[in-house]
């Protein structure tokens, strides 16, 4: 079967929904009146099909389209375009779910490391993982490196750039990455552990290429980027190159795409090994159910794709560790940034975070 | 003055709005508790400031933040990140407007050609411009080239790829571009005119680089891309390289960013010489007022930035030419795709479109 299934929620009357669904199928494929298409093959194999229409609450319907896989070209950005490019401009339409045939999943590739590969990188086979962030932007490479050294010495598994750290004068990418990776390498030599640095990649194609080269030269094994800022296609290419990838949800909240579908499925499909998303109870309004959906979508068996590690973040603190692991289980990376930095003593707070997580080694 | 002004519309109570605005300023800059920031410079120069709060309809407020220009690093994707990265995940917040100091506008660059440069490319100094699209995807390079030849012979100024044409098997980028540019070159030699081909660029950084090389080899002078799919940073880099850029709004409708701000201002700032957006009265729900706002934002004087050409599209037909030019004036590129293809005779319909537009040469 060479079509993917895309499910949309559409606000429309019962009288209008059939025509509306057909129009959506056209919009998300050939984008022209079908009567004007002369090639039979295009009718048979390229034009999207309405596969199902069902009521979905008052005044709303769930429409499932069969979209020809060939229109995606196997490229993640183009997949997003065919799923929700033009209809993103139609505010009565939102994208709810996506399913692809197994062969298509394999063709996209998914995570190159997955949860297992991340565990191998940091050397933690069973327990939940810890992550913190280098902040604030505006700090020098030396300041960020010192912070990284402290966090690594405290036992944090993954240290990411704040997503606001790009290529600014205060800490240009190459200088920052060399300094931070150096500090983390030194901490690892002293501790015997394997803390992993995750610098933030940003910019257009040329700048991204330069940053990836600088990162590799510095010995970086994993990078972060925001697919909705830098392109889902960039995630796919970086995953194919062998670096592990952490996806940040910046600009992703407004997309009118269900969070579990965008973050748990599409980011994973494109190759994100870890997916950050706003945790419930923090600065963002995601519900607990929504967060559970994201984590489930990231981790559940999906064709042959490796599972991606959920990284709930935002408003987390060491005091919530047990609650979070109780909620998500062990296959989670807990990200705590600001709460460590505002503690009276960073080293103590980070150590407390680490200790609480390690104590949950045998949580089911 | 080294801050840009970003205006947001926030749903909040009067009792909560002060704290909410301060939280937004933190979120869109340092993203950590300010009390934990030890460097005075960061407090003074990096943390965003609440510059104004005003009522904006029942239960809503307009909040203006002063965001430090240094946080953008002069890079268009990072600008979008600082404007709306994290708060895109907070559904009560939408981005309404952006203003930058003149020096910052110049630093970003804006369009490298602008409306004047596009007119020079196609040789039409005063009248409105015409554009059509190569459809449907799934067609072979030869079929697309034949269509391009017909449209060019009819006098169309700009011929763009359908935004669904990426790098699929049916018409891989390099083969398609060579065939289409060849057909258009032949038509131009025969007619003495200067029809411009605008292929669609897609993919991650490596693929974009390959496509740009192939495009240049084929003699392409202008490319199209969807900034919300491929990254606003890509627009900026391509503009800096000397190619003209047409921006497609795919995935841009859902962003909770005011269309005039996203399409008319930010796409222009990043370097789009022409900005496509859904025209009122077509398949998309944009109002006439919204369309006027987009066109105004694209064209009005803005620091030293060249104006961008508005390209209203979607549901247009030759019969609407006079209405559209009456609405927008002469500084507009009318895009008609499907309506030409579904006409009884394409050459006649395209010629009718062209004739109607040329007749408006002296419209004010």
UniProtKB/TrEMBL annotation, chains A, B:
GO terms for biological process: carbon fixation. One of its GO terms (molecular function) is ribulose-bisphosphate carboxylase activity. Residues 122-341 form the Ribulose bisphosphate carboxylase large subunit C-terminal domain. It comes from the Bacteria. This is Ribulose 1,5-bisphosphate carboxylase. It comes from Pseudothauera lacus. The lineage of its organism: Bacteria, Pseudomonadati, Pseudomonadota, Betaproteobacteria, Rhodocyclales.
């Amino acid at each position: 079967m060479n079509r993917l299934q895309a499910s949309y929620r559409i606000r429309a009357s019962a009288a209008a929904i059939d025509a509306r669904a057909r129009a959506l199928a056209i919009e998300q494929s050939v984008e022209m009146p079908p009567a004007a298409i002369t090639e039979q093959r295009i009718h048979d194999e390229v034009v999207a099909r309405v596969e199902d229409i069902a009521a979905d609450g008052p005044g709303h319907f769930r429409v499932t389209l069969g979209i020809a896989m060939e229109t995606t070209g196997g490229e993640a950005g183009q997949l997003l375009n065919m799923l929700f490019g033009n209809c993103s401009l139609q505010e009565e339409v939102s994208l709810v779910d996506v399913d692809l045939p197994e062969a298509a999943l394999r063709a996209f590739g998914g995570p190159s490391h997955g949860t297992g590969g991340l565990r191998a990188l940091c050397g933690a086979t069973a327990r939940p993982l810890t992550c913190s962030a280098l902040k604030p932007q505006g700090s020098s490479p030396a300041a960020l490196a010192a912070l990284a050294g402290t966090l690594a010495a405290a036992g944090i598994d993954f240290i990411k750039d704040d997503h606001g750290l790009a290529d600014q004068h205060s800490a240009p990418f190459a200088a920052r990455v060399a300094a931070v990776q150096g500090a983390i390498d030194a901490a690892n030599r002293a501790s015997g552990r394997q803390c992993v640095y995750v610098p933030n990649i940003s910019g257009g194609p040329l700048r991204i290429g330069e940053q990836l080269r600088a990162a590799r030269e510095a010995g970086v094994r994993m990078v972060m980027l925001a697919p909705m800022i830098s392109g889902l296609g960039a995630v796919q290419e970086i995953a194919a190159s062998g670096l592990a990838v952490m996806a940040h949800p910046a600009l992703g909240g407004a997309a009118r795409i269900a969070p579990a579908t965008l973050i748990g499925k599409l980011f994973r499909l494109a190759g994100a090994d870890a997916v950050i998303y706003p945790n419930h109870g923090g600065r963002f309004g995601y519900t607990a159910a929504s967060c559970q959906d994201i984590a489930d979508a990231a981790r559940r068996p999906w064709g042959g794709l490796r599972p991606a590690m959920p990284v709930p973040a935002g408003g987390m603190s060491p005091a919530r560790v047990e609650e979070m692991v109780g909620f998500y289980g062990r296959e989670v990376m807990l990200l705590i940034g600001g709460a460590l930095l505002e503690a009276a003593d960073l080293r103590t707070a980070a150590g407390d975070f680490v200790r609480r997580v390690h104590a949950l080694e045998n949580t089911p």
